[in-house]
Prior knowledge:
11 strands; binds thiamine diphosphate
Amino acid sequence: MKTTDERIPKSDIELNRSDFVSDQMVKWCPGCGNHAILNSISQLFPRLGYKKENYVVVSGIGCSSRFPYYVSTYGFHGIHGRAAAIASGMKIANPSLSIWVNTGDGDSMAIGGNHFIHAIRRNIDMTIMLFNNQIYGLTKGQYSPTTPMGAITKTSPYGTLETPFNPAELVIGAQGTFFARTADNSPKDMSNILEEAALHRGTAVVELLQNCIIFADKTHAMVTGKEYREENQVFLKHGEPLLYGKDRNKGIRLNKLRLEAVEIGKNGITIDDILVHDQYEQDPIIQLMIAKMAPPHLPMAVGIIRAAKAPTFDRLVDEQIEAQKAKSPIKCVDDLLNSGDIIEIK
Ligand SMILES: Cc1ncc(C[n+]2csc(CCOP(=O)(O)OP(=O)(O)O)c2C)c(N)n1
């Protein structure tokens, strides 16, 4: 069994999917992408093999933030935008927890933007599942920081005038060590990617391209739609060239300082010209370029974009406490009470 975090105890008994399904009625709309994500998690948790009581699902507010009710583990439904802050405290106080943050694009990047970027910068060991439906779902269709410019929504009847965030750019810019992207209609890839995210040491952000069937239906269709995905998605695999297309004869090459789409066999292009993906590269420049690719000129990258090594805040805190304890003459409360200036009253 693959578990990198030796601080989280493994289950003595074999658990299965049904152990993680809660008795609560799932209240998401029929057809909402969240159902597939929930299903993927209830299959993944037993596979990771930790004790059931060591999983915690933490959320803010939004449709996706109802997640903790639907997984039979410990859970915390927090306040809007604060899931990353709550989760940070949990992991630092109790490193034996496997922490899963569920957050929407509005929850994490609008009201929660500050908490989100600082949890990432500190590299606290947790997995952040970023449900990106490019809209505020729960509050019925206001635009969010990822809504495409010009989109007509409840709060932008004439089209938004804002440049959206690309979550990958934000995460990598905040010194994120792990960023992956997957879609709610690719359950197998989603589950493998979430597993890798869980095994990563540090804050792992997985952007889930999620369809809100009511307020932003088909917002990701050009990338995730069955009829487009072969031409508009490049699935990243560490150490392999960035190839895509129905016949896998298209690829991405680095031409001077830009990525460009090329066809193998045309204009003298061969497989050797195609960029090879390195998810472990510490310098994020090329990963950032890959993260920014999008139709119509380039396919969008799905899979693990970045998985770099860096110390985690929670481990550093532990080490610092241990080092200070070892140096300190104070070993117990009695020592503390008898330390410093003592005034004797006679
Ligand atoms: C302080 C505060 N401001 C605003 C709200 C209203 N509110 C609840 S959910 C939400 C946005 C949710 O959108 P998103 O995070 O994208 O999640 P989704 O519902 O799409 O999953 C807002 C603005 C709130 N609950 N609390």
